[in-house]
Amino acid sequence: MNGIGATTLLHALEWRYATKKFDSERRIAPETWSALERSLVLTPSSYGLQPWRFVVVTDPEIRGRLVKHSWGQAQPGDCSHFVVFAGKTSLDVEYVDRFLALTCEVRGISPAALAGYRNMMVGDVVNGPRSASVGEWAARQAYIALGQFMASCALLEIDTCPMEGIVPAQFDSVLGLEGSGYTTVVACAAGYRSTQDKYGGAAKVRFSIGEMVQTV
Amino acid sequence: MNGIGATTLLHALEWRYATKKFDSERRIAPETWSALERSLVLTPSSYGLQPWRFVVVTDPEIRGRLVKHSWGQAQPGDCSHFVVFAGKTSLDVEYVDRFLALTCEVRGISPAALAGYRNMMVGDVVNGPRSASVGEWAARQAYIALGQFMASCALLEIDTCPMEGIVPAQFDSVLGLEGSGYTTVVACAAGYRSTQDKYGGAAKVRFSIGEMVQTV
Description:
Structural class of chain A: alpha+beta
Strand order of the largest sheet of chain A: 1-2-4-3
Oligomer: homodimer
Strand content of chain A: 5-15%
Distance between the termini of chain A: 32 Å
Order of helices and strands of chain A: HHEHHEHHHEHEHE
Largest sheet of chain A: 4 strands, antiparallel
Shape of chain A: globular
Number of strands of chain A: 5
Radius of gyration of chain A: 19 Å
């Protein structure tokens, strides 16, 4: 394992900002983008269930339609890669079993060894307390992915803009997600900041550590 | 700006896993922890409003009580630093104005220059469409923090375990959050994996990029 220093980490997180204007001519290199796709798939999730899909929009015509459903913001059109984070709308036993079958395959263990784990998942998110709010549970998981993705991009010197100002139902329609079992939760534009983005050099506004972090 | 390579990033994200058993003797060094607190504060949020507090629990007695409200999981007691992510339960104009006053101070601009921004925030999360679900909106923001925190820790070679299996109301009671305007959303244990954690060497289970990432 080779980690990085705290200075490098904080430098990247300070450098990051919600990019308003992307350089529409610059594209993320394919090998860098491949790494970022892998980082998305590596996102931690509740029970490891990965209740999401990541839709990467590269087609200019589709991007143009998404701009119209993004409160008029230009980022979906101007960025290099536009990612829509979609969450599962429901969770059934079949999905859990498919995840467990993959676990058995990857780890070389028997399904019997995972019986307790299966019962816990089914008794919680399929039939238990969280089953009534699976959509919101999945949406929260998608936000873990969003957080990890923005940090990962910053470390690779890729700019991002998280976008909640979108119309999920319209995104679902444009992306063909209706009836797929997944629905748009949030989106994130990725690419390179324009030198004309006046926010690129703006000081970061954060409440103090003393106010936001309480130690007990 | 000095970024890192994609290999270093992916190495850290592959190394990370939900640590079941922490080495209860090892503590995160103060300077490393300070950097992680700063990384928490740097988390991106909707409109930049930072609707959260991070409660770092170091007191052994309090940790013991949290174990009881964590479905019996030992991580709150065994880890080095236990972080509770609390989200705002409501949002008022005063909070927005306090954030805007800070923005004016940090960036040396006048409140008048932020009038449109203020109207947008108030018309959305205070009085508009999102005001009815501010708690969930804040919870999602806390999950961005969780995602960035776990990635940051992995890059600094710190182990983590995200914990949704907790009883938020009991956490609120133990931590004195009741009536504070903040409520427990999720938690994360941080520290160093025990060499006895059998999950430390387990292969990672992820659906394939081809299945999880759709490019259109």
